[in-house]
């Protein structure tokens, strides 16, 4: 049972801003049923959209979200683990509380959502999980030690969960965007960003459509043999 | 409060679900059916599916949230996952002590 009939049900974390907001609107426009979550309310009102205000690191709240998805839809087809935070600073000036916060959101919450998602996906023996890494991992960017380390953990998580979830018909992949002009990088100096773009094979900012293109590829039924992969945009 | 017999029924439903999902699987619903080990007809993925189905049924039918494969279960000298019967006893005890 690897083919799925529409409408597919997609869960997007960090859905109220930036890439998450874009992806929410994008998949609603394509006719999907979209469930979004974030700490803040969503600006989207759509008959096929449900938003949950929660902290992605709150296990009880996350389990309750999945319980509601199971009771309402009895299934989940796609998880887009987009929620993430960044802090760019020299390691010597980075408080431990910042490290804990970044790992909590980027790694622990990603794991939590993967674990709960596969429980729902196993019944139909179909599922697609897409995690978010960054080009800061292969570039080993100075000033991003903790952010990049957390995303390295996400990549390892992706590769190992791909193996553990394969028996349940669920693929787990990740994409690593280049800088995209969103809130996440609004405080990064322009010259830093320019230097980063110089390291890419294709020297431009990423577009939202670059991200959705990769996610579309991972999601399509023909990609059932693609798992455990990390795809970097821009030729990192 | 949940009884041992009620948990047995939940486990049997989970086994029904497992058997229905496989063309060549016919796990017998008996209290001494082994859930893992060489004498078990279940592989590790089957066991995960059974445990998750029991967790879901506990939530749906008894409004109880329980992570069955918790640290306590995994650290016991005699695993509670040996047979249908040992699993039922363990789950009933865990739920009733909540």
Q: TL;DR of this structure?
A:
Chain A has 236 residues and is α/β, with parallel strands linked by helices.
Task: Characterise this structure.
The complex is a heterodimer of chains A (236) and B (98). Chain A is of the alpha/beta class and 236 residues long. Helices cover 43% and strands 15% of the residues of chain A. The longest helix of chain A has 26 residues, at 96-121. Chain B has a single domain (4-22, 29-96), classed as Non-ribosomal Peptide Synthetase Peptidyl Carrier Protein, Chain A. In chain B, helix 1 (4-20) packs across helix 2. The chains are: A alpha/beta (236), B mainly alpha (98).
Structural class of chain B: mainly alpha
Number of strands of chain A: 7
Low-confidence stretches of chain B: none
The overall average pLDDT of chain B, rounded, is 92
The pLDDT mean of chain A sits at 94
User: What series of H and E elements makes up the topology of chain A?
Assistant: EHEEHEHEHHEHHE
CATH architecture type of chain A: 3-Layer(aba) Sandwich
Number of domains of chain B: 1
Q: What is the CATH third-level topology name of chain A? A: Rossmann fold
The named CATH superfamily of chain A: NAD(P)-binding Rossmann-like Domain
Largest sheet of chain B: none
Most extensive interface? A-B, 8 and 7 residues
């Amino acid at each position: 049972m690897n083919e799925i009939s529409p409408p597919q049900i997609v869960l997007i974390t960090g859905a109220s801003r930036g890439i998450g907001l874009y992806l929410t609107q994008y998949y609603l426009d394509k006719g999907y049923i979209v469930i979004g979550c974030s700490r803040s309310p969503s600006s989207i009102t759509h008959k096929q959209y449900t938003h949950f205000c929660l902290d992605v690191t709150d296990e009880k709240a996350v389990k309750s979200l999945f319980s509601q998805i199971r009771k309402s839809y009895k299934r989940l087809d796609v998880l887009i683990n987009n929620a993430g935070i960044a802090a760019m600073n020299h390691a010597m000036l980075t408080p431990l509380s910042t490290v804990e916060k970044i790992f909590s959101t980027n790694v622990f919450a990603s794991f939590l959502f993967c674990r709960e998602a596969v429980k729902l996906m196993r019944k139909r023996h179909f599922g697609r999980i897409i995690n978010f890494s960054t080009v800061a991992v292969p570039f080993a960017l100075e000033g991003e030690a903790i952010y990049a380390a957390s995303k390295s953990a996400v990549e390892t998580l992706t590769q190992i969960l791909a193996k553990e979830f394969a028996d349940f018909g669920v693929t787990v992949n990740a994409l690593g965007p280049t800088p995209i002009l969103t809130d996440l990088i609004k405080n990064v100096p322009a010259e830093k960003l320019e230097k980063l773009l110089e390291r890419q094979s294709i020297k431009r900012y990423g577009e939202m459509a670059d991200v959705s293109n990769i996610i579309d590829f991972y999601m399509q039924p023909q990609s059932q043999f693609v798992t455990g992969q990390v795809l970097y945009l821009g030729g990192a | 409060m949940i009884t041992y017999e009620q948990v047995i029924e939940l486990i049997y439903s989970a086994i029904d679900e497992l058997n229905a999902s496989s063309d060549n699987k016919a796990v017998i619903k008996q209290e001494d059916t082994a859930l893992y080990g060489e004498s078990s007809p279940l592989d590790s993925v089957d066991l995960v599916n059974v445990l998750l189905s029991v967790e879901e049924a506990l939530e749906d039918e008894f409004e109880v949230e329980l992570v069955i494969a918790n640290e306590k279960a995994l650290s016991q000298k005699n695993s509670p996952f040996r047979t249908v019967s040992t699993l039922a006893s363990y789950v009933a005890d865990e739920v009733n002590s909540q």
